[in-house]
Amino acid sequence: MDDVLRPLIVVGGSVVSALLLGWATDRLLRKADQRHHETPLWGLLRRARVPYQLLLIAVLLRASYDETRLLTAHDVAVGRALTLVLIGSAAWMAIRIAAAVVETSYTRYATNHRERDPARVRRVRTQVTLIRRVVSAVVGVVAVAAMLLTFPAMRAAGASLLASAGILGIVAGVAAQSTLSNMFAGLQIAFGDMVRIGDTVVVDGEWGTVEEITLTFLTVRTWDERRITMPVSYFTSKPFENWSRGTPQMTGTVFWHVDHSAPLDAMRVKLRDILRECPAWDGRACNLTVTDSTPSTLEVRALVTAKDADDIWTVRVEVREKMMRFLADEHPYALPRVNTADAVPPPRDGLEIAPSDGVPAARRAHAHPPRQPR
């Protein structure tokens, strides 16, 4: 009877104690989160309650398992399994706590600087995201290494592994050259302020917003909701357009092809009227000029401004549409036309050239005098 009750009491007591401690800690974090609404730290720390309870169970069982006198022939295997669970849960909890601290720091910084310097907020967000990924990777590698070192065979092979570390390092570096270059490029992007999460970029002719940056790849969300995934090394080796670099203000152009008789002054007045009614226009500048001419049309360019890339697109499409509607309704002659009739040259020496056959009109009248009325 004692052989049954002892394991049940030890194992059950450890599990129940761990669950009670986890529940009490979660209650304290919940109350702290309700009292301190200005920081999300306590709410984020609650995400670590599962690895925390698992860690408590592993610690209590590891400390009290010898008292159970259960599976004595497999004490080493059970103890090693509990150690592996202990290391894994500790690493899991460390990653969750580090993520909570980093996210809280970023949230507090973004709240204080979002209005004054949004570009710097995006830069800090990019750096924080990559730092969190690096910390997670480092903690994971250390945890796996600690798990492997619990096996005696791994410790015995440590000397030979260290002896061949130089050769293995060279081979791994050559094999993972592209991966390592992308990792270093990711760190360069994060701390070199080349491109940030939320920036508007043009890559390979595609216009979009940077949605995610990792150590190896970068995701751009295009205007039509597509995702373009590219290696981060692309942004360190090839040119690209970053419309959010510096100030987000932008200048855009709108082109029309109109007839030579188009009322340019009326178009300038209409352009100002259109922009005054457009909420996306920031009021910095507007201009309308003739930039080119062909035998049949004039090329007219309107210059408009807006506070960011999204608004400049709205201003351009609205100006283009309303100006064409204005010309079609009030000045239809200003629209481009294709001349299909023969040109009539000016009269010369009192002779007018008829457009039909090129015979002078005076000669035609002499050859065929008008009929006199009866």
UniProtKB/TrEMBL annotation:
Residue stretches making up the Mechanosensitive ion channel MscS domain: 179-245
Q: What keywords does the record list, in alphabetical order? A: Membrane, Transmembrane, Transmembrane helix
Kindly name one Pfam family recorded for this protein: MS_channel_2nd
Residue numbers spanned by region Disordered: 338-374
Would you say which domain of life the source belongs to? Bacteria
Task: List compositional bias (Basic residues) regions by residue number.
Answer: 363-374
Segments spanning the bilayer are: 6-29, 77-99, 130-151, 157-176
What's this protein's name?
Mechanosensitive ion channel
Its lineage opens with:
Bacteria, Bacillati, Actinomycetota, Actinomycetes, Kitasatosporales
